[in-house]
């Protein structure tokens, strides 16, 4: 069994690659970072170091590595007979993976079992996004033939993997907690065997609970923490004023998850506690800059702030704490982050309604619109 995994970064090596390896797959890492790929190709193993209660050191071996930017032939050869294709590259990068998926399907024998394609990104319907990009490249006639050669399944991945300290090499430090939920119905009665993952009938409730709790809480901690001058996530949450505002945000998103997906209030309270304890893990050197990265993506319509706030507003439920987190996000000014630079430029030039429409995807007339314009207007120049 072979799995080609795009994105040999933190979650790629520290979670998806590990689980595929443990499931018995020969893992082929594909990445555009030449230094990383060369290091992987020159090594025969790396270690995933867990930190927290019950922590273990886990060795990953039997992998290969391909530079997907410069070695198209080697990549195509690996993909042609792969069983699984996964990604952990970031949602905005999926469109660059689509040509490789298309090539893999073109080269695949029509008689081979379908390729299992699973995007492991923090985004709703990430695999569907990858499928749509691939379909678009193929055109309607070819797609009719090719789509039978793959199964596209959405997934939700949860494990905090911080940026790795200098000198760590290929080893990755991760938390002990992990969850990989995969939607089962697209596979019919033949889902891939990945013991570390669990298969669910409907992914929607899982991905929304995860994105609107773990990621909303994480990003809120990062943005409130950044403005309060904190560098680390654990340190930010130790600040009572940050923790109190993050908890208020999570009460709002939990109200949506309870109302929309039927999770119990007690169950959500427990889920929040576990998550906040994970953020407080002192063994994880996670920073507000990593967690707050790409603020324009995080402020977009289907993401961790605007999506729950829009749905709460539509239901007439409170959004005050979420709007406070959005306002904090607007203050994320990190010169090393291109989206933060663009955010600050837009705030200096855009009128608030333009920003709300173009960045947040909220149109006039939506119940969130006027309050969001008011919040953004406090930060824009005009
Ligand atoms: N780190 C976490 O805690 C965590 C947890 C759950 C989900 N995620 C999600 O996983 C994804 C990756 O996050 P990460 O933290 O591992 O980021 P990362 O930056 O550590 O890794 C991303 C990797 O993708 C590679 N890449 C970029 N463009 C590429 C391309 N065109 N082809 C192939 N590879 C390419 C980069 O070189 C990098 O090695 C994101 O969607 C993130 O939201 C991360
Ligand atoms: O990866 P992002 O930029 O979407 O979000 C940053 C963090 O919140 C995220 O990477 C978490 O660590 C992860 O989602 C935990 O499962």
Automatic annotation (TrEMBL):
PANTHER family: ALTRONATE OXIDOREDUCTASE-RELATED, MANNITOL-1-PHOSPHATE 5-DEHYDROGENASE. It comes from the Bacteria. Residues 1-194 form the Mannitol dehydrogenase N-terminal domain. It comes from Agromyces kandeliae. This is Mannitol-1-phosphate 5-dehydrogenase. GO terms for molecular function: mannitol-1-phosphate 5-dehydrogenase activity. The gene is mtlD. InterPro entries: 6-PGluconate_DH-like_C_sf, 6PGD_dom2, Mannitol_1_phos_5_DH, Mannitol_DH, Mannitol_DH_C, Mannitol_DH_N, NAD(P)-bd_dom_sf. One of its GO terms (cellular component) is cytosol. The lineage of its organism: Bacteria, Bacillati, Actinomycetota, Actinomycetes, Micrococcales. Its EC number is 1.1.1.17. Keywords: NAD, Oxidoreductase.
């Amino acid at each position: 069994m072979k799995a080609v995994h795009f994105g040999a970064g933190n979650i790629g090596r520290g979670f998806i690659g590990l689980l595929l390896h443990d499931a018995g797959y020969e893992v082929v890492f594909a990445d555009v970072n030449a230094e990383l790929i060369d290091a992987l190709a020159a090594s025969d193993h790396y270690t995933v170091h867990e930190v927290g209660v019950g922590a273990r050191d886990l060795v990953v071996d039997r992998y290969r590595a391909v530079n997907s930017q410069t070695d198209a032939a080697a990549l195509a050869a690996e993909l042609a007979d792969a069983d699984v294709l996964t990604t952990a590259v970031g949602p905005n990068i999926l469109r660059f993976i689509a040509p490789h998926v298309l090539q893999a399907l073109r080269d695949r024998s029509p008689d081979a079992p379908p390729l299992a394609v699973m995007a492991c990104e923090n985004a709703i319907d990430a695999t569907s996004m990858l499928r749509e990009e691939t379909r678009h490249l193929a055109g309607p006639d070819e797609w009719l033939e090719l789509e039978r050669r793959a199964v596209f399944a959405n997934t939700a991945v949860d494990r905090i993997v911080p940026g790795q300290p200098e000198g760590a090499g290929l080893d990755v430090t991760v938390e002990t907690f992990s969850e990989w939920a995969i939607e089962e119905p697209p596979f019919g009665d033949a889902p891939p065997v990945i013991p570390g993952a669990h298969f669910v009938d409907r992914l929607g409730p899982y991905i929304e609970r995860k994105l609107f709790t773990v990621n909303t809480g994480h990003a809120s901690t990062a943005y409130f923490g950044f403005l309060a001058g904190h560098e680390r996530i654990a340190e930010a949450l130790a600040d009572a004023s940050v923790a109190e505002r993050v908890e208020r945000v999570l009460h709002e998103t939990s109200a949506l998850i309870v109302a929309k997906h039927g999770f119990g209030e007690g169950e959500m309270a427990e889920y929040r506690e576990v998550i906040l304890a994970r953020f407080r893990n002192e063994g994880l050197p996670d920073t507000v800059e990593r967690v707050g990265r790409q603020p324009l993506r995080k402020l977009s319509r289907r993401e961790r702030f605007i999506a729950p706030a829009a749905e709460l507003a539509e239901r007439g439920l409170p959004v005050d704490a979420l709007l406070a987190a959005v306002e904090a996000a607007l203050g994320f000014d990190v010169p090393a982050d291109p989206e933060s630079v663009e955010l600050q430029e837009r705030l200096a030039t855009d009128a608030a309604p333009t920003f709300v429409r173009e960045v947040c995807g909220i149109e006039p007339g939506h119940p969130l619109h006027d309050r969001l314009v008011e919040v953004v207007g406090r930060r824009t120049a005009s």
